[in-house]
Specification:
mainly alpha; about 75% helix; 5 domains; 22 helices
């Protein structure tokens, strides 16, 4: 039993019971230590069940009886098969306490997953107690501050609560420009001195921590959803995102800028906007910030100009030489077709008319109040160009038929060339189309492969993140276990414990073999006794029958028969006496064991304790009656 007691004491110490070092067996356990051990085990096994039990034995007898009854009920709820009551703890015996503690130690959590997730020792008990307390507080419904009882005020706070005021904090960093580092070293106040009021330090730190956690979570979510899809390293992805944001800001500024200079306000506001855009894009000259998208340019052209300016640009486009050449060619062709019935008289007239019109156009003066010499020169240059085009058209009118035939030949040649080019295009289009389809199928296959690999990368990233979290938890658990290992006594040898356990197992194995041998010998002996008994009965029956036949005729045989019957009866009585002696010896051994067990129960000492507790209880009752009778 000494080894069993040592194992029990070690298990109780691991469960959080402060068993003194000088205590080496359950016989040395006091009532206070028994009660504390049972309560600690109950708190580890079932925290809600043991949370309401006190590990300290109260001084009053009635309180002790109530605590003993509560412990007995808790043990019965756990499924203890034996009889248990308040007397088990207050007037305990060594065998009963050993059975009870063995039951509780076997109920302690020993699952591998639980052992990995929860450290053993006092820290585990503390963590479970904290978890049970938090669970109890979370199970309590919220009550408004004005309606809270004193107990709820302890759990949920008093009615006068401090408001939550957070202020932005500036934390020093190791990287950055030299000026920023000098500011951090020489001018930045400490973090507790940055908030304007002392009570705002903790809210500010909590707010900053929550913001950092939120930013980290957003970055991980964005990297999982968009960063991996971009197939860029994290630094390049951040730089690309910053450039895209700058482009968007630049487009917004271009769209929100004021219109270009009008008649009333020439250009200063536009120039200021141009300077602002130039200053924004100066850091990336020639880069992607210097260019905008086609959509932004179209919006700028459609909404950023003055309507009068757009009308002027349309008029200038209508008066351009290309459109005038097209108009002149169409007019000449129409005139040639119209002049064919009347012969050659229309051509000089037409040419004179053209020249007259040109002369009138050339001799026309600019309108007064114009824009000066430069607009007049521009107008005269445009008219000269128109005059040259019209003169060239008039020169082609006399040979209109030849010119039309040549034009027809040119058109037919162009049509044949187009047909030839279409045939050549069809010749090249088939292989190119097949190549395009093949490349498109290959591109789709690559996209599917890239999507699969992207999903695998995301899965691997998630697994690596989980593995990192699990590694951190295991490192924390390893540190806790190392701390507890350092706090354990150094004189305990694991090899000695292992050797002792192996010796106990070998001894138990030998005892089991001896018991098995004794049982087999007993069974063989019982079989031999049964065989001899049967043989004796059969021999006596045959002898009795033979002697009884001769006893009718001979007197001496009759006496021999009487002696035979007396001998058989005496032998039967002798066998019965031997059996009774064996039964009496067994009863003696049982009584001796009962005497030993009763001696271990410390009955006289328990009787004295019961008498003393009875006298103390009577004194408490008398005191209570005296207090009740006092006015």
């Amino acid at each position: 039993m000494d080894e069993v007691d040592k194992i029990l004491i070690r298990s109780l110490r691991l469960s959080g019971t402060p068993v003194p070092e000088e205590v080496q067996s359950l016989q040395e356990f006091t009532t206070e230590l028994i009660v504390e051990s049972v309560v600690r085990c109950l708190r580890v096994i079932n925290p809600p069940l043991g949370a309401g039990l006190s590990p300290v034995l109260p001084p009053g007898m009635s309180a002790r009886f109530r605590l003993g009854a509560s412990l007995a009920q808790a043990c019965q709820e756990l499924g203890y098969p034996g009889e248990v009551g308040y007397q088990t703890f207050l007037y305990s015996s060594e065998p009963e306490i050993r059975r009870l503690l063995l039951f509780l130690v076997e109920k302690l959590p020993r699952d591998e997953a639980e052992d990995v997730g929860q450290p053993a020792g006092k820290s585990a008990v503390l963590l479970r107690a904290i978890a049970a307390k938090i669970k109890q507080q979370l199970g309590t419904p919220w009550v408004p501050p004005a309606c809270r009882t004193p107990r709820l005020q302890l759990l949920q706070g008093a009615p006068l609560l401090t408001p939550f005021h957070a202020h932005p904090l500036v934390l020093p960093r190791d990287s950055g420009p030299v000026e920023r580092q000098e500011f951090f070293r020489g001018f930045l106040p400490p973090v507790p001195a940055q908030p304007p009021r002392p009570g705002a330090v903790a809210p500010s730190l909590l707010e900053r921590h929550a913001g950092d956690l939120g930013a980290q979570h957003d970055w991980e979510a964005e990297w999982q959803s968009q960063g991996l899809v971009s197939r860029l390293p994290p630094k390049e992805y951040v730089q690309w995102k910053r450039q895209r944001l700058r482009r968007r800001l630049l487009d917004q500024l271009r769209q929100a800028g004021p219109p270009h200079g009008t008649a009333g306000s020439p250009q200063p506001v536009t120039q200021d906007l141009a300077q602002l855009l130039g200053s924004l894009s100066a850091g990336d000259a020639g880069g992607p910030l210097a260019k905008g998208s086609r959509f932004s340019h179209a919006q700028h052209l459609a909404h950023g100009q003055d309507p009068q300016e757009l009308v002027g640009q349309m008029q200038m486009a209508a008066e351009s030489p290309v459109l005038q050449d097209l108009g002149a060619g169409g007019a000449g062709a129409a005139g040639g077709r119209a002049g064919r019935p009347v012969g050659g008289a229309a051509a000089p007239g037409g040419r004179d008319g053209g020249r007259g019109g040109a002369g009138e156009g050339a001799g026309a003066q600019p309108e007064p109040g114009g824009g000066g010499a430069a607009p007049a020169a521009a107008g005269s240059g445009g008219r000269e160009q128109t005059l040259r085009v019209k003169s060239q058209a008039l020169e082609l009118l006399p040979h209109a038929e030849n010119n039309l035939a040549k034009l027809q030949l040119v058109v037919e040649g162009s049509a044949q060339r187009l047909v030839h080019l279409a045939a050549q295009w069809e010749t090249h289009r088939g292989p190119l189309l097949e190549e395009f389809r093949r490349l498109r199928a290959a591109h789709r296959g690559r996209q599917l492969e890239s999507s699969r690999r992207l999903s695998e990368m995301q899965t691997l990233h998630e697994r690596s993140r989980k593995a990192a979290t699990e590694a951190r938890c295991k490192e924390e658990l390893c540190r806790q276990l190392l701390t507890e290992l350092e706090s354990l006594p150094k004189d305990v040898s694991r090899a000695a414990y292992t050797q002792r356990i192996l010796e106990i197992l070998s001894s138990i194995r030998r005892q089991s073999q001896d018991i098995s041998k004794i049982l087999s010998d007993t069974r063989a002996l019982q079989k031999e006794i049964n065989r001899l008994t049967g043989k004796l009965d059969r021999t006596f029956a045959v002898t009795d029958e033979l002697v009884f036949k001769d006893a009718k005729r001979d007197e001496s045989v009759r006496k021999a028969y009487k002696y035979l019957a007396a001998l058989h009866e005496n032998c039967t009585q002798l066998i019965q006496t031997i059996e009774d002696a064996g039964a009496i010896q067994r009863e003696i051994r049982d009584l001796e064991e009962q005497i030993e067990s009763e001696a271990t129960k410390k009955t006289p000492a328990n009787l004295e304790r019961i008498l003393s507790d009875y006298r103390a209880l009577r004194q408490e009752n008398a005191a209570l009656l005296g207090r009740r009778q006092e006015p």
